[in-house]
Every structure is written in C-alpha cells, then in structure tokens.
Amino acid sequence: MSLMKTYKRFNLNFVEGSGVFLIEKNGEKYLDFVAGVAVNVLGHSNPEIVNVIKNQASKLIHISNLYYDDNQLSLADKLVGLSGFSSVFFTNSGTESIEGALKIAKKYGKNKRKDKIIYMNQSFHGRTLGALSVTGQEKYQKDFTPLIKNVIPVNFNDVEDLKNKMNNEVSAVIVEPIQGEGGINEINNDFLNEIRSLCDKYDSLLIFDEVQAGVGRTGKFFAFENYNIKPDIITMAKGLGGGVPIGALIANKKADVFTYSDHGCTFGGNPLVTAVGNKIVDIVSNKEFLEEVVTKGDYLKIKLTELSGNFDFVKKVKGKGLMIGVEIDTSKVAIKKIVETAITNKLLIIGAGSNTIRLVPPLTVTIEEIDLFIKLFEKTLKTCY
Ligand SMILES: Cc1ncc(COP(=O)(O)O)c(C=O)c1O
Question: Which domains does the chain show, CATH number per domain?
Fold first, then answer.
C-alpha cells in the first residue's frame, strides 16, 4: 500500500453510487448515512450534477484566477444574494476557507492592535497549521506544536469563560454553530448572543464556520439563519460542491478587507467546480427543498428517540435538520463497536467526538430510506447490546 498512514480505513472499496446507496467492489449495497462526511448533499452521482460536470468539462475546466468566468461570477452573486454579505473568495476545502478567515482577522486587527483570536474547546476547523491552531482538540495538535501564537480557547457555551477572555485585543472569534467533529454540539442562544454583543463592543469579527453545518444541512441554506444574529464571515466547503472540491469564504462589509495580492488560490473556484456549485445552490436554496430537510430531520429524530427507549446505552438524540447525533454511554458500548457492527448490516455511519454517532445523510434522503436506516440501526444496536 503506497498511501501514507493518515487514515484508519474500513476494509471497503466502493466502485459506484446512486442516491443514498454505495456499491462495494464485491457487488454488495450499503446505505450511506455518512455521505462523504456531510458532502454529498444531493446523493451519489446525482444525474443533474453529472450532466453539469459533463457539459462544463467539455467546454472549460480551469483557467486560473487571472481571468473571469461566468460560473464563478454567478456563484459569488448567489452566495452574496442569499447571505446579504459583501464578497466571496473561493477555496478548495474547508481548512483553506478557515485559513482565509484567519488572514482576514489578522489584517482586520493589524492597525488596531488586535492580535488575538478566540476559538472554542472541542471545535474542529481543519488540519492546516492555522486552522489546527484554533481547533480545540489536543489530540490533533499535540505533535505539531508550536502552532500560531495568540489564540485563546474558550469553553463552548460558557458565557463566563467568554466574558473573562474577550477584550480589545481580540480581532476575531471563530465558532461552529453546531460542532460537527466535536460531537454534534449545538451553540446555545445566550452564548451566541453574548459572542455577538462582545464582538460589537470590542470591534472584533465573528467567524461562523459553516463548513459542515452549511448548505442546507440544518434546514436553512446558511446555518446562521437559525439564529437571530449574523456573523461577519462565513466559511463553507463540503456540501457546496456536492462532491467536487470547492470551498468559500464570505465576508460582510466590515470584514471585506482583502485587497490585491492579499490572498490567492490556483484552483479556487475554477469553472468546473463553480458550475457544480451553481447547480447545488439553485437546488438546495429552494424553500420547499429546505422545508423537506426539516421535515425529514424531525422524522429521523422522532424515530431515533422512539428507538432510544429500548436501549439504555443511548443517552440523547441531538442536532438540527439532517445533522444529527446519537449520544452513547460509552462505558457500556464503544462507538467503534456500533460503527463496525453497522457495516456488517450494510449501513455506513461515523462517530463524532468521544461519545456520539453522527448521521449526515444526503439531503435528498427519502422517508422510506430513513425507515430503512432505522431498521438497520435497530438491528445494529441490538447486536451491540
Ligand atoms: C466545521 C469544519 N470546519 C473545517 C473542516 C475542515 O474541512 P476540510 O477537511 O475540507 O479541510 C471540517 C472538516 O470536517 C469541519 O467539519
């Protein structure tokens, strides 16, 4: 095997996919509630996306950011229109979107003597050195220190801790509205309101990392729309390309500080990925589509809550829309055991944090497929007992 040992992979090799199903090399069919880790929002090989890729690839794939391309212009317009923000920068991944946001924070603070960035414990923002510096999980950081300086951790949802650490020297606060990798932990309204009002008081930027929770995942196109405040910067990736690599950084007027040569990205927002991004945004931002995400997410939560009554090791069902966590008493059953048992039942799920099963199926999943999931998940939990 010539690959670096960075991933602990399951012994599965997929060759085809359709909707919410994946086909293994041996012909077996799996129900996929991982969706490429919250990426395949329209399912696998969605015919509309396949057509866009075919058409665009036959016309133009890449031209660099030295020139304009209508796909990129129109996707930027759509993201600005939907958010009410000011401008967009395209990247290839979540971690690159975070790097861009951190650079904006640095530039914003430069002449104001603000050189500190606040981040949350249990957060996850990516693996590059800047993003890793504001990822509040020691296990990811420990072999790579020293990381960037002047980053301050705050306990998630802890208003007092935040108040103690916020001051005039803070250029930005970065937060996930729902912590994904950290265990599907939702921000509470008091904490969020306090972040916003302290950012206003101290002239700091509020960065919402919507890499996992954005693009319809919570039942709103942007996760921030679930709350009564607005951030200054939104970072996106994952669902925005439905499987092709694209990320974005959206800034409001206050945070729109980049100028020529401040930042760049060779592949960022090329014609192929932005053609796909346009299609994804058109479909996912549709009101009825988003309402269905809410309906299906509520249904899944109800079914899971019913199920949890039969298993004393299931502690809690949490999350929003189709970003759902099932908290497990890991002193009774290990997450690894549940994930591995699910695979034997032809069901794909993953863990999040130390004690949560994460469910992030394609947003196009049907009620019948959710019923099938519940059947396979119940079978899995019974075997784990
Ligand atoms: C909230 C959040 N931010 C950033 C990232 C990093 O994204 P990527 O893996 O595309 O670099 C992730 C990845 O899981 C994430 O969940």
Answer: 62-284 (3.40.640.10)
